[in-house]
What we know:
By secondary structure, this protein is an all-alpha fold. The chain contains five helices and no strands.
Amino acid sequence: MNPYGYLPATSYAFLPFYGIMACIYGGLAIVWFVLNAMHWKEIVMLQNYITVVLGVCLIENMLLYFDYAHFNLTGTRGISILVAGAFVTILRRAIARMLIMAVSIGFAIVRPDLGKNKKNIINFGLVYFFLGFTQQ
């Protein structure tokens, strides 16, 4: 154990990085929620999906911070935190890619709904999620 804990020097920078990122996402989420509450009558469905991605990013960074903090304090990786972090990371990537695909075909910009493309986007997201989980 070194004076800073059990994390190796190559991984120690991730501990404050994920802590700061979680705080930034938390502040951004507070501002986003306040603005959504102020303009709740004008919100389109796309903004609700952005809220979901923002919330998942916040949870992901908190889990990664807690994983590195636990490893730094105890010297062992918490399997449950590690698995939850991997799950949330893959979930965020899948949701973000589904959102990009929906916006790319004009959802909430020129189209009010996805129509028949909704099923294809959901299937893509599920396949991406399961393939991403097998890689982790």
